Amino acid sequence: MFFSDLIAFIKLDPPALQQVMAGFAAQMLGLLYAGQQVALSGGEQASSIVQQAIARMRSDMTSNLEVKVLAEELNVGYSSFRHTFQQHTGSSPHRYLLELRLARARNLLEETSLNIKEIAQHAGFEDEHYFCRFFKQKTGCTPGQWRSKLKSKRSSKSRQNEL
Fold it and tell me: What is the dihedral of CA 141, 145, 146, 148, to 10 degrees?
């Protein structure tokens, strides 16, 4: 369709044909580049594998999910899986899983009264101390400090609403 439109337009020989041709050329280059990018990232099959991996990570966050085992379950080699996942998400599968677990921990800190060890377990961290170090590295405060900040924000908002 694109090429037939282009040929029909050239046959008309309208004014400013060269400018229009430059526009068509830019559009063709854009289409070629888009096709190349899909091929480089593995196309729809790779995208499907990444989506399946993310869905599994989200549903199995609390288990001892290993990324290498996940790649095997998806019938792809680990290095290929890791590379494809990185291209699609901008993060390694392991880092992505850790970020999901961190987000889950933040939600649990805000929405529950579970202690820190229970939150670490519910978020998928096997070691409470590693969880606390990782949490502090990512957020700048410990899980307990995070929870205290949330409580103080809530209480100050409720006081403002009362006034």
Answer: -160
Evaluate the CA torsion angle 107, 108, 110, 111 in order and state its sign.
positive
The structure tokens listed for 158 are 């409720």
Shortest CA distance to 127 belongs to which of 98, 149, 84? 98
Q: Exposed e or buried b for every residue in 19-51, given b needs 16+ CB within 10 A?
A: eeeeeeeeeeeeeeeeeeeeeeebeeebeebbe
Residues 6+ apart with CB under 8 A from 143: 105, 109, 116, 119, 131, 132, 135
Which tens digits make up the pLDDT trace of 128-139? Answer: 999 999 999 999
CA dihedral 114, 120, 123, 126 (to 10 degrees): -140
Q: What is the DSSP letter of 75?
A: T
Cα 146 to Cα 11: distance, rounded to the nearest angstrom? 69
The model carries a pTM of 0.67
CB-facing half-sphere around the CA of 113: CA atoms within 13 A? 0
42 Cβ contact list (under 8 Å, min separation 6): 49, 84, 87
